[in-house]
Amino acid sequence: MLGRLGYYLRLAVLDFTRLWHTTQHHVVIIAGIVLPILLLLGLKRGHVAELRKELLESPTGRQITIFSGEHGDLITTQRVAELSQSIAGIELVIPDLQKLVAIRASGPGKGEGEGLDVTLFSTVAGDPILRQVGCEIPEDDDTGIVVSDLVATRLGVGVGDAVEVIARRTTSRGEEAAKASMRIASIIHQENNKSTVGYASFAFLDKCDQWTRGFWVQSLGWPASGDPIPPKYSAYLLFTEAAGAITDDDIRALKDRGFVAEVTNDVTEITLAGAIPLEKAKQLTVWRVVPDGSTATEPVWVTNPPGEFEAVTQADDAVVAWNPPRVTGEPPRPLAGISVKKRSWLRTLLSSRRLAFEPTDASAVFIASPPAAMSEIHVPTRDNVVIDLSAKAIDSADEVATDGDRSEEAASGASPLLVIPAHFLARLGSYERGEAEYDSTSKVFVEKPAPSAYGKARVFTRNIDDVPAVVEALTQRDFSVMSESGRIAEIHKQNGSLQLLVWVVATGVFLFGIITVFSVLLDSTDRKRGVLGILRVMGVSRRGIFLLVLARAAALGILAGLLAVVAGFGIEQALAWTPPPGTVFADWKPTVSIQVGPLDVAIVIAGAILCAAIGAILPAFRASRIDPFDAIVEGRFT
Amino acid sequence: MTSPLLEIEGLEQRLRDAERPEEFVVRVQQRLAILPGDFVAVLGPSGCGKTTLLTVLGLLRSPTNPPSIGTFRLRVLAGDNHEEIDLARLWSRRAHTAIERVRRRFIGFALQSGELLPALTVRENIEAPLCLNGWSARQRKPRVDYLINAFGLRRTRPDIGSQQSVARSSIYDLAAARVNKLSGGEYQRVSLARSIAHHPQLIFIDEPTAALNRELARGALQEFQRLLGNGQSQAAAIMITHDEELASEFANVIVRMAPLKDEPGGSVTDISRRQQ
Q: Which of A186, A222, A308, A375 could be disulfide-bonded to A146 (CB atoms 3.0-4.6 Å)?
């Protein structure tokens, strides 16, 4: 059966090839039918490609500018990573950041003067906008900057030269500047719009931004603005000399302000960690005032100045902001934070008048109780960071501790008390809790930098076709979006319209083709009635005849399809040819972009085969039904 | 006694011709039995239904009313066994696939004008029935070579159509030539060779002298008869002709047909068997 099937196919091919003179016009007819489809497909592809070309060549085609909308998330570094991972089609997200800095050439004789004011825009390695102009900043290198040729000319620098970038900020202390050593990675050539602009890595500009906002930038060694974080206390100690000095009205008044007051007998608290001799402390009534709901394990931190509490109560009390002392150093010593108002009666009770700081004392020099020879205190804190405090011994004239006390300390081996301002101990606690950073440059505790958040970013898609989907995804995340999606959508729309047009025309041509092929093959099959009759006489089945005619038509379709493709490519080349300037004989010729793709070729060849095969069905059926002897008899005379 | 290869009796074949008001009738009233080795000549004047009878006997057309036929059967040798095929029953059941198989396997045709396939060469034409019957290339080659030699188709001759090719090559291999290059006699011999290529048991020859002169036809038929075994073969040949001389020379069974008197058509009027 299979052998016979193969023989039918062989007969079809032999009939097609050896009797070429009878089939060549069929090939040309079918090729002529499918050729317009190929040209239409190519024309559509070429037209859309022309439309896309401009956008493809321009990186702004695939750039989407996003803004944090009313409900949209702010654009943080974390958000940038999340967007890149969660939205398919995003290649790059660059938070939009610009900083006005001064740039000064480095090197002998150059590093003088204020520098040239330049606006730096944020970029990253692979930024298509920079790539378009042949510039790039290196990956993993925050020291490269790209400047306009105007900047380069004015500074007298070229690619690879070192420059100083100077950032400025205004603080309570006045205007401050910070410098960073950078180098010129590329120079942008500007045609008309000469301006002093440049690009720096987003990471660098982000640091500049943090510094401008007052934060400490450790990696660049740029100090914080100097404004320390507010000190946080766990309690306030109210010292009164008379037992009933604090009345119920005072306690109620404190409660109204959210504080709970209760008498404390804790030795550490009533002696201020030993700064007040115990005998004297016992003569006092000490109230511990804590925020309502605060516990020893989970304190509620407060930042009220102690004077507020003195004003609330009617008593002649002395209020000390209090955090429990800690132990530090080797050998371990208690480190207490004690700040007492200068004119407070409490100072008279201290072992030494200078054992306590004043609340407003922001000095970074700290007093240590003996040993007097100690000049530095090393405070180990979190992450193995050691904060070195300058120590100052108490003058011997200020010593009020009794010899007995000293003897007791010496006998017990207890370490002498170290005292620092209460606010410093409070800030040290904030630092250890990770709520603050210690700016070792300025020696102040500063607010921990909040993650940078920006209102605008540039998003680049992998190609322009991804833009509409990415815009949609970003819009769903409540970002306000600005992009070329309108133009891209227009291209897609035109592509769709042309596609529809092509299909409508192709369907018409295809149907027409089927009818033509049907007529041609019907005629051709009628002419071959004699041959088909002989085959039937020799015992070829009806199915065999049907298959034979169909196979012959398919071979015809393949050859017609190939012919159409060859002709199509020829026409494509001819239409795309642009006459050289001055070619008089061809100056009338327009240049038409036709792009025949592999898919078009496949469609056309498949279409030609299908056209021939469908058109051959009825002739094949008719051929299979012919009376063999009649066919032979009729065939003799044709 | 040898069983008939083909047996038919009581056939009334009616043909309706669109151009004529009446039907054309062909009748075989008496029993026609064709034995293996027979060379049957069907004689009669033009228009008496000889070719119509051939189309029915050669299974090219369905009998008008198959169940009404008295006898219409074929007894063929399939391998070592005889297979009896009730043709009237096959036609009654419209078993076209079975009929096509019988025609393909057991019947050969050498028609009036040869009726070769124009796209094929001489060799390919001769091996066509072999291909259709599933012969392998290895089986086909010796058989086709034998027939080409036997019918004198191995000969070479100058290419008459082209003086240039004569100058270039004075020989022309007929076996490899397309059939449009053949002369009338060569064409007829190829047709005869093709008709017996697959060892059919019933061979129909339609008007061998229609397209050839008698001498050429005689030569071809002599070759044909020799290959059939001069009556010793299991195959039988049925030749439609109106050439009495040719019939008496080759046939051992003469079937005479005559026109009907009262209606268009003809019938078998005499069947005579000559003892060989």
A: A186
Q: What is the rounded distance in angstroms from the CA atom of residue B188 to the CA atom of residue B152? A: 12
- At A100-116, the pLDDT tens digits run 999 988 876 665 667 88
Establish if A50 touches chain B: CB-CB under 8 angstroms. no
Taking only the tens place, the pLDDT of each residue in A543-553 is 889 998 888 88
**Predicted ipTM of the assembly:** 0.87
E strand or H helix at B132? helix B122-132
Q: Which amino acid is at A347?
A: R
Integer angstrom CA distances of residue B130 from A1, A540, B151, B197: 13, 12, 17, 7
Q: Which of B96, B97, B104 sits opposite A538 (nearest CB)?
A: B104
Report CA torsion sign: A75, A80, A85, A89. Answer: positive
A40 touches chain B (CB under 8 A): no
Instruction: Answer whether residue B255 shows pLDDT above 90.
Output: yes
Q: Looking at residues A619-629, what average pLDDT do you find?
A: 85
Query: How many residues does the structure list for chain A?
Result: 638
Across the interface, do B178 and A537 touch by the CB < 8 Å criterion? no
Whole-angstrom distance, CA of residue B105 vs CA of residue B99: 10
| Identity of the amino acid at A350 | L
Angle between helices A542-576 and A529-537 (to 10 degrees): 140
CA of A210: how far to CAs of A73, A146, A205, A446, A448, in Å?
A: 20, 21, 9, 12, 10
Q: Could you tell me the pLDDT band of residue A357, with boundaries at 50, 70 and 90? A: confident
DSSP codes of every residue in A374-418: --EEEEE-GGG-EEEEEEEEPPGGG--S-HHHHHHHHHHTPPPPE
Q: Quote the pLDDT of residue A32.
A: 87
pLDDT-based confidence at A307, cuts 50/70/90?
Answer: confident
The label of the residue with tokens 């004077």 reads A307
pLDDT tens sequence across A201-210: 988 999 898 8
Selecting from B112, B119, B128 the residue whose C-beta is nearest the C-beta of A538 gives B128
Which residue of chain A is at minimal alpha-carbon distance from B117?
Answer: A531
Pick from A309, A237, A233: nearest CA to A269: A237
Among residues A286, A285, A289, which one has the least CA distance to residue A259?
A: A289
Closest B-chain CA to A13: B119
All residues at 6 or more sequence positions from A527 whose CB lies less than 8 Å from its CB, including other chains:
A22, A638
pLDDT attached to residue A385: 65
Beta bridge partners of A171: A174
- B141-158: pLDDT as tens digits: 999 998 888 887 776 555
Neighbouring-strand partners of residue A311: none
Residues of chain B neighbouring A5 (CB-CB closer than 8 A) = none
pLDDT at A303: 87
Q: How far is B265 from chain A (nearest CA, A)?
A: 18
pLDDT of residue A305: 82
Which residues in chain B touch residue A542, judged by CB atoms under 8 angstroms apart? 96, 100
* Phi and psi torsions of B260, nearest 5°: -75, 155
Task: For residue B1, name the pLDDT band (cuts at 50, 70, 90).
Answer: low
Angle (CA) B117-B122-B123 rounded to 5° is 110
